[in-house]
């Protein structure tokens, strides 16, 4: 009986232990599940933190790149502004030189007109003086007889009644005549002035044609070198720099003793510079200074070399 009761007690104890063990086993997974959820949340939070940090780093790098790009753009704009300032300064220098050249050209043109006018007056005065005594030496002599010199030789019939002083024939003989070549000189001057007017009005193509026609018509004229020079200037105004160089070199070759040669060389140097050949332009300026050191063109050449 006692043993049996003890066994039943043990059985009860065993059942209680089993129940406790089962309870413990049932509680263990719940605790493990609770632990796993907390760790997962922590990991998710840590991942979110790392993502935020990475996002901020990417945004900071993008902002830095944008700033760098903006800074580089400002540098480029600044460089362009400086280049524009340099170009403006160079153009101002060229404008001053061109203005000075235009002033000097106008001055030379006025001097040329005054010189031509004085020469024409001397020619006209000389022709009138030469024709006056011829009619007054021998009353009644015809103009043809005076020019041929028959009266001076002492030959020929005596003057007829129709050739006595006061007759219409004698009056015609006593009328002063314009010297030979005076009409050609006037036509020459008019042709040159007409071509120059084309240039002044801005019709550079017409000026080239007119001056070229003048040179063909009057190749030995004192104005021919100037006409050839203005051909090159008109071509330069049309930005035909190669044509301007060829025309000015033609002047130098055809009229090497002309006072326009230094100006022609200066125009050649300017055309070479506009074509981008700065080296050859400098050589031409140096050659100009060496060959014509006292000329106004040489002084301009020195100024340009100093600017460059």
Protein model, in words:
The protein is mainly α. Among the domains are: 34-108; 183-308, Serine Threonine Protein Phosphatase 5, Tetratricopeptide repeat. It has helices at residues 2-137, 143-148, 150-153, 168-174, 182-200, 204-217, 224-237, 241-254, 261-274, 278-291, 296-307. It is rod-shaped and about 160 Å long. The termini are far apart. Residues 131-180 have low confidence and may be disordered.
Question: What is the N-to-C succession of helices and strands?
Answer: HHHHHHHHHHH
Q: Could you state the oligomeric state of the chains shown?
A: single chain
Cα distance spanning the termini = 135 Å
E-strand count:
0
- Give the overall form: rod-shaped
CATH fold name of the domain at 183-308: Serine Threonine Protein Phosphatase 5, Tetratricopeptide repeat
Task: Please name the CATH architecture of the domain at 183-308.
Answer: Alpha Horseshoe
> Could you list the spans in which at least 5 consecutive residues all have pLDDT below 50?
131-180
Annotated CATH homologous superfamily of the domain at 183-308: Tetratricopeptide repeat domain
User: Helix amount, in percent?
Assistant: over 70%
Question: Main beta sheet: strand number and arrangement?
Answer: none
What's the number of helices? 11
Task: Average the pLDDT over all residues and give the rounded result.
Answer: 73
CATH class division of the domain at 183-308 = Mainly Alpha
In terms of structural class, how would the helical and strand content be classed? mainly alpha
Give the DSSP E fraction (strand runs of 2 or more residues): under 5%
